[in-house]
Structures are given as C-alpha cells and as structure tokens.
Design a protein that fits this description.
Number of helices: 25
Structural class: alpha+beta
Number of domains: 4
Shape: globular
Strand order of the largest sheet: 1-3-2-4-5
CATH topology of the largest domain: Glycosyltransferase
CATH class of the largest domain: Mainly Alpha
Distance between the termini: 69 Å
Strand content: 5-15%
Largest sheet: 5 strands, mixed
Helix content: 40-55%
Length: 638
C-alpha cells in the first residue's frame, strides 16, 4: 500500500511511496501529530540520483521490521533537498554544529515532538557496524528517552534550537586590497594535486569556481603556475571517467584521485558550470579540445535531459539495481566494437581507451584516454558504444525543473552560442520557456515538474542565477529586453533577501543566511553580487553600492581564506581592479566572438556610435574603429 508520498509531485518522494515507512511530506499535519501523540520526529533529506540515499532506502526504509517499530514510535518526514533547499541548508548547518564536520546526503535528523532537533547524521546502517550505531539501535534509544521525557535530551534540544536562531549582529569588516590575489593563488597552489589536477584528495569534485577564478587571474596577469594548474585540471578531467566520452557530460564527482571512477549520477548544475568553464577556456587559450568538451556537455543535456526547452535536474547512478551498469563495458564488448570499426590492432586500441581484460571498475571498463588527444578512430568507436548503450535500461531521470539550474544551463548555451548559432537559438528558446513557466502572477518560483504548476516560491539562488543568465543573454545578443528583465529580478531579490550588506538564502519556513562559500555550486550571494556589479556598470551605479556593502560584510573572511570563497573573492578582485564598459553598435559588439584579454569588460549597445568607445564607471577614455586594438586600448586606461 502506498504512503502519503504517492500524492507528491517530487520524483524523489515518489521513489519512497511504496516504503513500509509511514512517510509524510513536509507539512503542518506531521508536526501537529507528533506533538499531539508525543512522538519523536525523524526527518530524512535526500535527492533522487543520490547513490547512498538508495542504499539507505534499501537497507533501512524497505525493512519491514524497522518500519513497524518506527511507525509506532516516530512521525517520519521525507524531504527532497532539490525541491526544498531551504530546509536542507537549515539541517546541514545543524549537522555541522553537532558533528564538527560537514554533512551530505542522505541527511538524517531526529527531533523532539515539539520539532526541536537533537541528533544529526548522514547514512545510518540498519544495525550497528564498524563503530557506527545502527538505525534499529538508535531509534530504540530515542523512542525510550522521548517516552520517558528524558530531561537531558529535551534540554539539549532547547539549547541547539536557540543556537540555530539567525544571528543579525554586525560583522567586523576589513579593508579589501590586492593581497587577496596573492593569497588566493598561494592557497590554490597549496591544495593543488600536481599529478592529476584538481584541489583535493578522493573523493574529488571539479571545483569549477576555483578554476574559473584562476582563469580570470591569468587573464589579468599571465602566470605560468596559474596556467599550469588550470590546464592540468581541465586536461585530466576531460580524459574520461568522471567525464563520459560516449554520451557526453560529467558525473558529479570522482571517488578516486585521478578522475577515473565516479558515482555515475549526472547533475544539471555540474554540466552547466563545466560546459561554461570549458567553453570559456577554449576561447581564452584557443584550445579546440576544450570546446569539444563544452559542446558535448551541451549536446548531452539537450539530448538526454531536455523536454519542451527546459532541463531536468539529474539522472541516476544506478540502473537495473546496479551502480554504473548503463555506463561501463565488458572488455569483449569493446574489442568487438573496435573490430566492427575496422581497426587492425584491437588490443592496442583498447588500451588507448583504458580498456583491459581485468577492467578498471569492478571487472568492467570505463572509457578513459591515456593522453589528452582522442584517437582519430574514436568517433566511429563512440557510435558503436552508443549503440550498445541503447540496448540497456537508461538510469532514472528526475524530471523536476529547477529555476536556478536551468538558468545555469541557459547561460552556458549563450556562452557557446557566441561561436555556434545552434546553441544561441536553443538558449533564447529555453530562456523564454523558463520565465513563462516559472514566473507566475508576478512571483518567481523555484521548481516544478514539466507541465505542472510550480508551488514553491523562489530562493535567492533562483534570482541570482536567473539574473546571471539574463545578463549573459544581453552580452551575447545585445537585446535590451534581457537587461531590463535582469534589473527587474535583481530589484526583487534586493527587496526580499537583502538587509544592510547581509543576504538571506530564504525567508520562509526557515530564515537561512546566504553562504559566502562555494559549496555544491557557486554561492548564490556571490552570483548576485556579480549581477549587481554588471547592472552597476551597465545601468545605474546604485547597484555597485549594494555589491560593495555585500563584499564589505564578507571582507574579513575573504581576505583571510579567499580559497573557500572563489566566486565572491573574484568579485572583490573585480571591485579592486575596476570595470570597463565597451560601447558600440549591436553589429560591432556581436561580431566580437573571442573575449577581450581584460576580464572585467562589459558590452553596452549604443546605436548612435560609429566606433568602439571605452569607458569606466564615471568617464569615457578612448575610441577606435579597429577591434584588433581594443585589448591595448583598454589596458592603457587601467
């Protein structure tokens, strides 16, 4: 028999509708019942493509014995963290507070009947194992303590609740200066993996915002060490494993240091951000390999993850009950595919794509090149490997539309579209569809299933990333309507989420401060600051005031450890270095396909001008009719 989740739109909640656990969605009814019946509350937060969420579901939530006990003693609530990031951020902060380390998914929270949290964990096994308390043993202890109204437990819950209340005290500020550049570079080099690229040990995430900031610094003042960090990371990620050479697109992270073995879920935000990064790197470093990766990311999203011009949120790691089954190959399959391509030495060719008899993942083979160059015959092999995949079950796709993540992908398409009309056309169509679908009766919404009415109001990230996409649309097309829309959404964000330099991620169920640091993707606050900087140079200097107050609010942390806040640190550097605005007719500006060397230049359409005009925030400096002289001319004004 289905539980209450059968009535929910969220694909993640739908995954749990047949669990024997008597789940509630997040709702007042659940909390009222817990209080009335004096039952502890168990809150489980995850998302549809999360591998360890599936593991805990199979081991714990599908266990009839566990469910029978939990249903008698607890009120259980399931939350889709993609649908409700405000709830997730609140309880992730709780996990960090209680455990002195960051959390993750699945996130497991236990609360008193009055909904005051006292215990937080991530994955919990069904029974005690490897010094981890099991779910059965833990729930038995909690149920007894709540039934007995254990004084210590309730006292701890009160203290934790008081500690979690938002702190609105003023934050000490420090002057921003150019030492932040040397500090950021030094800290990046300290964390850099010289062999494989990237900035951590296993598990390894791409850290897109760190790489993007390094690329911008390299454009300001070329530095061989910075270039090396950036290119080695881009090259090694693109060899394959975390990057899927067959269908295109990146998996979320690598479980090893060399980017070989991922959990195989693919997220829209990762592919949008990496598509943007590789496309921009291709232009800056004139590297066609990077452009190929960017295009293949976009093609994957448009082929597998798009419906009615909008993009789904994620695809799963598992299919047919096995992790990675869709993605990996048997050695004999690869040899046979190479033979069909007419390749003479199939064993040598197999080695070039990382295949061997023993395999590189649980006896199977993940496609990964042993150098940066693709063999000339790989396109033919790719078609054969795609044909094999078409005989397999495709992993589950979460068909939820999230405004922020769609905006990220649309921005990536506009970036690619500067050199390829196909992507620009899709970007325009997707932007129109996103706004018409998610801006309802004057209110921006956060998420919805395609074709269904969105119910959840937008968070700061939705406004921020939508503004960023609209501003990129304006830079790419010079169509004024995008600039007007960006200003409108920025004004709404300032009104709802900004107070004297401080930003809030949400002001609804929970009042959640916006984070300075770049977590799963760049900080919403930082993206909003970048949008305000753009609007300040393009439309009205008042937006620069809000941007500066935001940077000032974070200045102490920014100057000390900028590596934790790469997107916000980049905006601080931009503030210190000053913007330039290039004014010209639309035809002249859209003809500039490659980026100017100085990164803090924004384009402004002015049909009254016959030539290019270089300006700052308060004055104009020089004019030219030769686009080849623009880099030197802009440099001369700094």
């Amino acid at each position: 028999m289905s539980n209450r989740l059968a009535l929910e739109d969220s694909p993640y909640l739908q995954q749990h509708k047949e669990n024997p656990i008597d789940w509630y969605p997040w709702c007042d009814e659940a909390f009222e019942r817990a209080k009335a019946e004096h039952k502890a509350i168990f809150i489980s937060i995850g998302y549809s493509s999360c591998h360890w969420c599936h593991v805990m579901e199979h081991e714990v939530f599908e266990n009839d014995t566990i469910a029978e006990f939990v249903n008698r003693h607890f009120v259980c609530i399931k939350v889709d963290r993609e649908e409700r990031p405000d709830i997730d951020k609140h309880y992730q902060e709780l996990h960090t507070l209680l455990n002195r380390r960051s959390g993750g998914w699945p996130l497991s929270i236990f609360c008193t009947p009055q909904n005051k949290p006292f215990y937080a964990a991530t994955y919990i096994p069904p029974h005690n194992q490897n010094q981890m308390m099991g779910f059965s043993e833990l729930t038995a202890i909690i149920a007894q303590k709540v039934a007995e109204k254990d004084e210590k437990l309730f006292q701890n819950a009160d203290e934790i609740t008081n500690y979690l209340r938002p702190n609105n005290d003023p934050v000490e500020a420090t002057p921003l200066n150019e030492k932040i550049i040397a500090q950021f570079t030094m800290q990046a080099r300290h964390n850099f993996d010289e062999e494989n690229g990237g900035f951590s040990k296993a598990p390894k995430f791409p850290h897109v915002s760190t790489l993007l900031t390094l690329m911008i610094l390299d454009r300001i003042a070329p530095d061989a060490a910075v270039t090396s960090m950036l290119k080695r990371s881009l090259d090694h990620m693109a060899r394959g494993g975390m990057y899927d050479h067959v269908d295109g697109g990146f998996c979320r992270y690598s479980t090893d240091e060399s980017w070989l073995v991922p959990h195989f879920e693919k997220m829209t935000y990762d592919n949008a951000l990496l598509c943007t990064l590789y496309a921009q790197a291709a232009s800056v470093y004139q590297n066609d390999r990077y452009l190929t990766v960017g295009r293949e990311c976009a093609d994957f999203m448009m082929t597998f993850m798009m419906e009615n011009d909008l993009f789904y949120s994620a695809s799963d790691a598992d299919s047919e009950g096995e992790e990675g089954k869709y993605f990996v190959y048997g050695y004999d399959e690869i040899l046979a595919a190479l033979e069909r391509c007419g390749i003479a030495d199939i064993h040598k060719a197999a080695a070039l794509v990382g295949a061997s008899a023993e395999g590189n993942f649980e006896g199977h083979c993940i496609i990964r090149f042993n150098s940066e160059e693709r063999p000339e015959w790989f396109d033919a092999l790719r078609r054969e490997l795609q044909a094999i995949r078409k005989t397999r079950a495709y992993p589950f796709i979460d068909r939820k539309i999230i405004t922020a993540w769609n905006a990220m992908m649309i921005k990536a398409l506009f970036v690619l579209g500067r050199n390829d009309e196909r992507y620009r056309i899709q970007a325009v169509r997707s932007m129109e569809k996103l706004i018409s679908s998610m801006f309802v009766d004057g209110v921006l919404k956060h998420s919805a299933l395609i074709g269904k009415e969105p119910k959840i109001d937008a968070f700061l990230e939705d406004y921020a990333y939508l503004c960023a996409a609209l501003l990129e649309a304006y830079q790419s097309t010079m169509e004024e309507r995008y600039l007007i829309e960006a200003q409108r959404f920025a004004n709404k964000a300032l009104e709802r989420f900004y107070t004297e330099g401080k930003w809030y991620f949400s002001r609804g169920t929970f009042t959640t401060p916006a984070e300075f640091d770049d977590g799963t993707y760049p900080s919403a606050m930082a993206v909003m600051v970048e949008a305000l900087m753009d609007l300040g140079i393009l439309i009205d200097p008042k937006y620069r005031y809000f941007a500066f107050k935001s940077l000032e609010f974070a200045s102490l942390k920014l100057m000390k450890t900028p590596i934790y806040f790469p997107t916000l640190a980049l905006q601080a550097i931009r503030w210190l270095k000053e913007d330039r605005i290039l004014k010209a007719s639309r035809s002249r500006l859209t003809a500039l396909h490659n980026p100017l060397r100085y990164p803090f230049v924004r384009y402004r359409n002015d049909e009254s001008l016959e030539n290019y005009l270089v300006c700052g925030a308060n004055a104009c400096y020089a004019t030219t009719d030769d686009p080849l002289t623009l880099d030197d001319l802009i440099r001369s004004t700094l």
